[in-house]
Amino acid sequence: RCFHFCKLPGRVMGIRLLRFTSVVIIVLLLVAGALTALLPTIKDDKLPNSRREPKTQSQSALDSFTLIMQTYNRTDLLLKLLNHYQAIPHLHKIIVVWNNIGEKTPEEMWNSLGPHPVPVVFKVQTVNRMRNRLQNFPDLETKAVLMMDDDTLVSAHDLAFAFSVWQQFPEHIVGFVPRKHISTPSGVYSYGSFELQNPGFGNGDQYSMVLIGAAFFHRGYLEDFQQQPEAVYALIDETQNCDDIAMNFLVAKHTGKPSGVFVKPVDIRNLEKDTNSGYSGMWHRAEHLLQRSYCVNKLVNIYDGMPLKYSNIMISQFGFPNYANHKNKM
Amino acid sequence: RCFHFCKLPGRVMGIRLLRFTSVVIIVLLLVAGALTALLPTIKDDKLPNSRREPKTQSQSALDSFTLIMQTYNRTDLLLKLLNHYQAIPHLHKIIVVWNNIGEKTPEEMWNSLGPHPVPVVFKVQTVNRMRNRLQNFPDLETKAVLMMDDDTLVSAHDLAFAFSVWQQFPEHIVGFVPRKHISTPSGVYSYGSFELQNPGFGNGDQYSMVLIGAAFFHRGYLEDFQQQPEAVYALIDETQNCDDIAMNFLVAKHTGKPSGVFVKPVDIRNLEKDTNSGYSGMWHRAEHLLQRSYCVNKLVNIYDGMPLKYSNIMISQFGFPNYANHKNKM
């Protein structure tokens, strides 16, 4: 029989076993806690009883884009468009460049009508400048920027497709509005669209610019834009125009290729007649087109040469809306 | 007075001057001869009284292409098509792959009806094989190959545009006939066109192949084709089909991207009903499409995987035939 001595190992072992088990349990709880912390957090602006799956806080920087929309005197259009654009697939965030100086942004109203699919940031400006939208916003987290005018509605299908095209041509401005310059015997350039004569490279037309008011481009070009000669900013400020032409010059210089890739839109609409503000866009000013020709020539001076190149590539989405768009007699 | 001694220098100088002058003249003649030899030679098949400017013997290998057209039992169509294709801009040479075994080529007739804009080479085959057209012909001098079926008429405008597109996408098959494969839950693939369900990547359709019977591609792929597993040749010979599917597999493996770029043709026609031979193409055989699905699955076996990738990029020529092809409400 084993009294004191025999019980001791048992009790010691028992205590050790107990301690060991406790330690194991505590470690397991800590690990479980750590794992839980790594799970995607539910976004703050979603109600807890939301039936939708919580979106991960940050979509891959390569698989999503940021919408930058500058707005002036058309808040009714802005809000209508935001309702549409907030739901575009692959959208990461919206940056609204608020050019209504001294006026409150609709942020409160926006928040009160949440939840929203993506965050919106209102960047309040101090001066009403056309080039405000070309700042290198620190809010940008994605490689791709989608820039839209505040009166332009492009369908979700068109945007999803154009984004996929941009991903294949990330150094170009991929968008829906092509324009061109032509040179004349005098050496003076002129700006225009299809109504201008074709540049004469074979048949059909050519374009040498894609306007940034409805286009995707790489955020790196916003950084580059900050490094341009002062004369470029002066030109844009003087005309309150031509920021898009300047961007096309920048991109063409950078790539040595045509700056843009034109994607033919299936459904693009200009909503400016729908505004209650009575404000119609800058392009209605009588001198608008003449200004743009003026800008082309000034930019050629500033950059000491004409970097724009022509392209006649027009991209459409195969089989959309239906296969009729590529059916032929074969 | 200076007799003997004085005359001597004069006579010597005179002789030396004479020699020197002769040498100079001879050297000048040699130089002139060398320069003449460097001038572009008039091509042999042009009549001396030709009013057209003689074309330089070799257009830049990058700025022109070689047409390869295989023909079987449709010589009337062949000759009709040659009249059209011989005049396509940027064409360097035509290679006719003569699959009419034992039959004389129309070379004599062709020559008697000269002059022609480009040289034509008739490659007489010993066996009637579908893959004869995929030989690495030593006659090829250009980087680009245009391969056409002997019953297909594509307009010059379409070809000029598609060639310019190929120059921007030289590692792809750039052509006018898109096709696709789809995978099924069983893992078995099926081959088809728009009638097959869309692969399900968003909306619209996708294509994963561009057929080589109406397409541009890099001659390097003909070299690559000679290095394929024997089983590929056996498959093509067994089916007398699928050489184009094999080429798409090859290109997709090589690039890791979609093999083809689809250019939407404005004017493409199939002339097979116009033939007097009564011979209609292979694709009328009952088993044609089933064979092609069979080929897709065999090739996946041979290459141990499915290298084909989907694309939905459709390219058209901006502003051709007229600006209506991109006009929109903006």
Quick synopsis:
Two copies of one chain form a homodimer. With 330 residues, the first copy, chain A, is an alpha/beta fold.
What features would you describe in this structure?
2 copies of one chain form a homodimer. With 330 residues, chain A is α/β, with parallel strands linked by helices. The first copy, chain A, has a single domain (65-315), classed as Spore Coat Polysaccharide Biosynthesis Protein SpsA, Chain A. The first copy, chain A, is 33% helix and 18% strand. Chain A contains 8 helices and 13 strands. In chain A, the strands form 3 sheets. Chain A has an 8-stranded mixed sheet with strand order 3-2-1-4-10-6-11-13. The first copy, chain A, has a 3-stranded antiparallel sheet with strand order 8-7-9. Chain A starts with a helix and ends in a 13-residue tail after the last strand. Residues 41-57 of chain A have low confidence and may be disordered. The interface between A and B is large, with 42 and 42 residues. Strand 13 of chain A pairs antiparallel with strand 13 of chain B, so a sheet runs across the interface.
Distance N to C terminus of chain A:
102 Å
Q: What is the mean pLDDT of chain A?
A: 88
Order of helices and strands of chain A: HEHEHEEEHEEEEEHHHEEHE
Strand content of chain A: 15-25%
**For the CA atoms, what is the radius of gyration of chain A?**
28 Å
Structural class of chain A: alpha/beta
Number of strands of chain A: 13
